[in-house]
Amino acid sequence: MKFKVPDMSCGHCVASITRAVKAIDPAAEVTADVAGKTVTVASAVSAAAVAKALNDAGYPSTAA
Ligand SMILES: [Cu+2]
User: Residue 43 C-alpha to ligand 1 middle, in angstroms?
Assistant: First the structure.
């Protein structure tokens, strides 16, 4: 699943996002493209659950 995360602007954002996703799925693989403002997540949890975790961490997203 892939998300557009407009507010992701630096390595700190990536760390926060990665932590938020791993909090709901420790096995998730998170790949962030800061320049492209996209986050790709490989996880067994639903896209909706990941989107909620991102939002709760302060990073609203849309499907990309
Ligand atoms: Cu940042």
Answer: 23
Give residue 17 CA to ligand 1 midpoint distance, Å: 10
* Spatial separation of the C-alpha atoms in residues 39 and 30, rounded to whole Å: 7
Q: What CA–CA distances, in Å, run from 13 to 29, 38, 44?
A: 16, 12, 23
The environment of the single-atom ion ligand 1, i.e. residues with CB closer than 5 A, is: 9-10, 12-13
Residue 19: CATH number of its domain? 3.30.70.100
- Please state the domain count of the chain: 1
Sequential pLDDT tens for the chain (64 residues): 999 999 999 999 999 999 999 999 999 999 999 999 999 999 999 999 999 999 999 999 999 9
